[in-house]
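Researcher: Structure for this, please.
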Amino acid sequence: MTSTNLRRHLSARHIRFMALGSAIGTGLFYGSASAIKLAGPSVLLAYLIGGAAIYLMMRALGEMAVNNPVSGSFGHYASQYLGRYWGFLTGWSYAFSMLVVCLADITAFGVYMGFWFPETPKWIWVLGIVLLIGALNLCSVKVFGEMEFWLSLLMVVAIVAMIAGGAWILFFGMQPGDPGAATIGFSNLWANGGFFPNGISGMLASLTVVMFAFGGVEMIGITAGEAREPKKVLPQAINSVPIRILLFYVLTLLILMSIYPWNKVGSEGSPFVQIFSGLGIESAASILNIVVISAAVSAINSDIFSAGRMMYGMAEAGQAPVGFATLSRFGVPWMTVAVMSAGLILGIVLNYLMPDGLFIVLASIVTFSIVWVWLMILLSQIAMRRKMGPAEVKALEYPVPLWPAGPICAVIFMLFIYGALSWFPESRTALYVGGAWLALLSVAYWLWIVKPSGEKAFDN
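Model: Predicted structure, token format:
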């Protein structure tokens, strides 16, 4: 191996679209229907509230990343400012959550390809996409960034087309679907049980789905070790991506629920196909299939990248096997990519042999882990500030806004999400499984880190 350091080949364009590709696809095309079912039109308020908390979290991450741009990012910051134990929990939880999210997306990819090739076994498509994405991640990070840019750009263009097409239907009175369909208009936001059809509790319940949908934006911090001019690129990406994601979600769902009653979303085929059909586009289903395939491939691409770079940073810090820090001649941590790809292949076998309930449990870990990572980012930034003197604070190039009230409110909100998970029976399993996962990691930390080195469990 000829390289010892990650190479800084990612531009602001790459980083923005990598985060968009990771966060928008799964959350918009799949998670939004579940959130609408829980909250009705008030899901728009849930996305606005959740988006504000996510922006504060991203600014906290940006403050640390600009001050100290390193590989592994928030896993490194948790170790540095909260202690090695917390960094260990954060890094491994994030890497594992990325693996499980990838399992969902590669399984979905096989289903999507079945739309065109129903006779071909799904596992062939799944194996093919795993090998393709694995190979792509072994290339130079610049090649990876370019591929991710174009995949995400295709998805973003399609979403903009859906927004524009839906707006055309809404304002020019074109009827989606058959003539007997429901009346379109903004009145649909309050005509079917009101803006809060399931009460405030329904809106609060949807927050757990909404926050899962935003998962992926934090990968901007992962790119810090490979970004060109990180002190310039990272603030640009952080300032633009959360706002764009929020606009895509809110605008898309606003138009969708105006032309298609919220209580019918997902019950009569894809509502996104309905938008294209309303414009007289006969190949609407095929167009949407191309979009969701692009979204799935983009998300898999970004998630493997994120998990690999996180494990690279942890290996450098002595919190993961040293082989994960080995780089190829292209400057890529090849072993992490290989392990992730192998894990995906094993996951396909498990997903085929075991019941669907197993995957639901794993998805619960993802929800728990994502919120855990965001909470650790916020607490790390608060801890960093408390250790800094007035002169150091003044010298910060990208300080978090509304300090200290903003980060504290975001921390309270993340804790509230855990409260919401425990309050509703449908999501309570996430806390049980997540707690067991952290306990397992704690045992692993004691056996692999503390006991061999003789250090205290909570030393920095």
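Researcher: Any notable elements?
Model: Confidence is low (pLDDT under 50) at residues 176-180. Residues 44 and 254 are 7 Å apart (CA to CA).
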